[in-house]
Structure formats: structure tokens, C-alpha cells
Amino acid sequence: MSKTSNISRRDFVKTVATTAIAGNLTNFDILKAQQKKAEDKPKTNIQDALKYPRTIDPLPGKYPGRVVIIENSKTIKDGAFDYEQIS
To answer: In angstroms, rounded to a whole number, what is the distance separating the alpha carbons of residues 22 and 24?
Structure first.
């Protein structure tokens, strides 16, 4: 039988025993966690946000979640940023 792992049998048993003891001390109930109700969701402010009409330029923008790149050849001068043009 060849050895395929660098962990000794003694360290393996210690790790398994420690994990089992820690699991019992935390009193974590798997069935209770699986039966968690949907009522536990946090309250949101969506209804408050829907009270305001949408404008032409809404926040977070017309295309939320998309990256917009703006290029201006005047902002880079001699391979460095030209801060006067940027601000």
C-alpha cells in the first residue's frame, strides 16, 4: 500500500475528532437551517424608491452594472495624465 498523503494517521484522527466536537459545541442544526422560512428576508426600500418618477438620467444610470469607457486624447500628454484636462 502506497502513501498518497503527507498527513499522518494520528493527525487525521485529531482533525476529525476536533471537527466533530466543534460541531457539537456550536449546536448547529442542519434540518433547522434548511427549514428557514422566506419571511426572514430583510426589509427593503423598493416601495419608497418606486414613489419617485424615473427621469432621463436615473441613478445608477441608464445601464446599471455596465462599465462605460470614455476616451479623450487630451487627457494623456507624453505618456502621463494631464491633470489640468481631467479636472
So the answer is: 5
**pTM tops 0.85, yes or no:** no
Q: What is the dihedral of CA 72, 55, 59, 86, to 10 degrees?
A: 20
DSSP H stretches of helix in the chain: 9-25, 30-34, 46-49, 83-86
Spatial CB neighbours of 6, under 8 Å, sequence gap ≥ 6: none
22-35 pLDDT, tens digit per residue, is: 777 666 666 676 67
Distance CA 65, CA 8 (A): 49
CA 34 vs CA 14, 37, 39, 73: distances in Å: 29, 9, 14, 56
Cell 445601464 sits at which residue?
63
